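Student:
Attend to each token:
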Amino acid sequence: MINIQYNLSERTLIFSENSIDFIKKVPQNIINNPLISQLVRAATSIGANYSEADEAGSKKDFVNKMYIAKKEIKETRYWLQLIIHTIPSLKEDGNKLLEEARQLNLIFSAIINKTKSNQ
């Protein structure tokens, strides 16, 4: 399901697409609908915030936008965990997304730390 890429713009886009494909498998009902909505917003905003960071006008602005993207990764993980809890049959696919989110978090953390140390 997840094709690992090293171009972060491409990789975050693929993560968003994979998240949408995962969300399509979640049955809609009174419990799942708020989880679906939250996960769509968080998972797709990672790449959007990374794109904004990539076009930042200063290092400070870049770091700020990367922090926002990193926060969205944490929120995405939260909603994924709730959906997996609610629908155990999606655990395997959900865990793949959780792993990719974990890796993106590590990459973004390293980028932030390196950028801050070079300021």
